[in-house]
Write a structure and sequence with these properties.
- 27% of the residues lie in helices and 21% in strands.
- The radius of gyration is 24 Å and the shape is globular.
- The chain has 385 residues and is α+β, with helices and mostly antiparallel strands.
- A hairpin with a 4-residue loop joins strand 9 and strand 10.
- The chain contains 13 helices and 20 strands.
- Helix 2 packs antiparallel against helix 3.
Length: 385
């Protein structure tokens, strides 16, 4: 804040754009949890800081005597939500107990091992890489005729279901997806079946398959539950009046025929999924998942989500990154010059912030730039020019 005030205490020119990151609430949530007194006090302190900034800008005037506050556009937002996650799941230890050679890349012990042993990866079968504390990505090493292949060789879905465990005392196979889904505290197991086809497995909410048809900024998705007779699905969309019509229960649709035209009417856009699932426990989960498992050199084989209040790191008591509403939903306030007062932000995603602000500021980026943006413009926010 002091550095920011230094900018505005100068006679000019004033900064065109200022980004102020206030990280106290985030750190308090991670280390003490979102229900803690520290989390609440940091939230109050953040409110105070924003108040100090607005009062300061009201007191500073430009060369024409107009307060800087009146000329400013404010965008206030969090980058994620936060859920309690104080119960630790030692997923590496559980896999080791099944006879597998696992390294937890998020542990302090591993950091020490990596420094003193340059050959630590030679016989590893699984690398557990935390993406926060309540989500872990598992990299499973492909085997061929009992020999290890390089890590950039992806395991097939079938291999994940029948992964060989070989040692001097046993020679067997393990269904990794079924085993992981049986661990207490696990929310969802996510794995790719083939390109643009992803399987979601839960311990007690059934399973579903997500199909993605890519398009130039216009991807469409199907969410087909695997057992229509069970009337249950991983994200609870069957119990949502707004989302139920988007759920596919057609038993004829499969991974071998889903590209056929007769299934076209089951595919819905990202915006359709956002609008329909906004008030559910898992908003926008369907279009988000295939993106997380898109095949590239850093993609994992399995994504494991912990349900609240569980986690994969003993150091944290709160976290984000999973698909639950409280973890991904956050607040946003946009106000100031060029903004249409009272416009709705319903259904807006963080990726929409940049293109919408460019519209409000009447900045037209090159078409080549716009093609690479995932976000859309919320036209109702911009006042007519």
């Amino acid at each position: 804040m002091e550095k920011l005030f230094e900018f505005f205490n100068k006679t000019g020119p004033y900064p065109r754009l200022t980004f102020l990151g206030i990280n106290g609430v985030d750190l308090a949530g991670h280390f003490q949890g979102p229900s803690s007194e520290l989390y609440s006090s940091c939230l109050i302190e953040t409110d105070k800081i924003i108040g100090e900034l607005t009062e300061f800008l009201k007191g500073r005037k430009d060369n024409n005597g107009k307060p800087l506050f009146d000329k400013s556009l404010f965008v206030i937002f969090g980058d994620h939500g936060m859920v309690d996650s104080e119960n630790f799941i030692d997923i590496a230890a559980l896999l080791k107990a099944e006879g597998m050679k696992v390294s937890d890349l998020g542990s302090i012990a591993h950091l020490v091992t990596e420094k003193i042993n340059p050959f630590w990866m030679v016989d590893r079968e699984i690398l557990s890489v935390p993406g926060g504390s309540n989500i872990t990505e598992l990299y499973v090493r492909k085997k061929q005729r009992g020999r290890f292949l390089e890590w950039d060789e992806f395991c097939s879905y079938r291999e994940l279901r029948e992964y060989p465990i070989q040692s001097w005392f046993q020679d067997s196979k393990i269904d990794l997806l079924t085993y992981l889904s049986g661990i207490e505290g696990i929310g969802e197991i996510i794995a790719g079946i083939q390109e643009n086809v992803v399987h979601v497995i839960t311990p007690n909410r059934g399973s579903a398959t997500i199909f993605r048809r890519p398009g130039m900024g216009n991807d469409t998705f199907v969410y087909r539950i695997d057992d229509p007779n069970a009337r249950v699905d991983p994200f609870g969309y069957l119990q949502s009046e707004a989302a139920i019509d988007l759920v596919c229960t057609d038993p004829d649709m499969s991974i071998s025929n889903w590209v056929e035209e007769r299934f076209d009417h089951y595919f819905y856009s990202i915006r359709d999924w956002v609008r329909a699932t906004l008030d559910t426990g898992y908003p926008a989960a369907v279009p988000l998942i295939p993106k997380a498992l898109a095949k590239h050199h850093t993609a994992s084989d399995i994504i494991v989500n912990a349900k609240s209040p569980y986690n994969f790191s003993k150091y944290f008591k709160g976290d984000h990154g999973i698909l639950e509403n409280e973890s991904v939903s956050t607040a946003m306030l946009i106000a100031g010059e060029g903004v249409c007062a009272g416009a709705s932000l319903e259904g807006m995603m963080l990726i929409d912030t940049l293109p919408t602000l460019l519209k409000i500021l009447n900045i037209r980026p090159p078409a080549s730039f716009e093609r690479f943006l995932d976000g859309k413009i919320y036209n109702d926010l911009a006042e007519p020019q």
